[in-house]
Amino acid sequence: MSQFSHILFDLDGTLTDNTQGIKNSLKYALNKMHVDGYSEAIMDQFIGPPLQWGFSNLFGLNERNTKLAVEYFREYYGENGWHQNEPYDGIFEMLAELDAQGKKMYIATSKLEKYALQIMKHFEMDKYIIRLKGADYGGKKATKSQIITDLLEMQQLTPSEQIVMIGDTVFDIRGGKENGLSTVAVNYGFGKEEELRNENPDYFADDVDELYEILSA
Q1: Is 126 an active-site residue?
Q2: Last residue of some domain: 38, 63, 83?
Q3: Pair type for strands 86-87 and 16-17
Q4: Which one from 10, 12, 17, 168 is the annotated catalytic residue?
């Protein structure tokens, strides 16, 4: 098993469970856009991918309306949604142990960067994280692959198998692979197990304990 020196975490569905905050923000945005008749299953699929992708592909909004829906989503999320959130059991302990082992840890998230920073500070995870890179406000660099690329460049890290991307969706695994990194799929977040396994991640963790075992080896 590889020795990972640098660890990139996704945020939603990997470190924290923001289900309620995201769904409430989505409901607010869709109500503002007069979109109704959607199912709970569609809402579940919305969690994880970039906002622009979700409004466009899951709800069929055109470019203009997608941009407007994202604004409404962030309007609610900025006031209420970001703190309707909870770290998964064992995350604090895992981060502390990995930090003690000298692992260098980062966040690569499709969430708007300022909200991701708020969440990290709120839960006092920021003391373990060297750098956080999130989506820019305009959505120009919102793909997970581009966010990972930007983070690597900012930290002057050369892609290698000793750098690992961890996430709960196919976007995380694809983004890691496209940047030449090792990948770990976690099965306790928002992604579907079959879809994740189809991406052939290097490792698969069913819970936080398994994730820790992979990362601390």
Answers
A1: no
A2: 83
A3: antiparallel
A4: 10
Could you tell me the sign of the dihedral formed by the alpha carbons of 112, 191, 205, 178, in that order?
negative
The whole-angstrom separation of Cα 166 and Cα 14 is: 7
C-alpha angle with apex 13: 106 to 60, nearest 5 degrees? 110
Q: Which of 61, 74, 67 is nearest to 26 (CA)?
A: 74
Name the domain count of the chain. 2
The per-residue pLDDT string of the chain (217 residues; one tens digit each, 9 = 90 and over) reads 458 999 999 999 999 999 999 999 999 999 999 999 999 899 988 987 788 999 999 999 999 999 999 999 999 999 999 989 999 999 999 999 999 999 999 999 988 898 899 999 999 999 999 999 998 766 566 689 999 999 999 999 999 999 999 999 999 999 999 999 999 999 999 889 999 999 999 999 999 999 999 999 7
180 and 95 belong to one structural domain: yes
Q: What residues does 203 pair with on adjacent strands?
A: 184
Q: Are residues 94 and 166 in the same domain?
A: yes
1 domain residue, yes or no = no
Number of H helices, E strands in the chain: 10, 8
Residues 69, 53 contacting (CB under 8 angstroms): no
Host domain of residue 160: 6-17+86-216
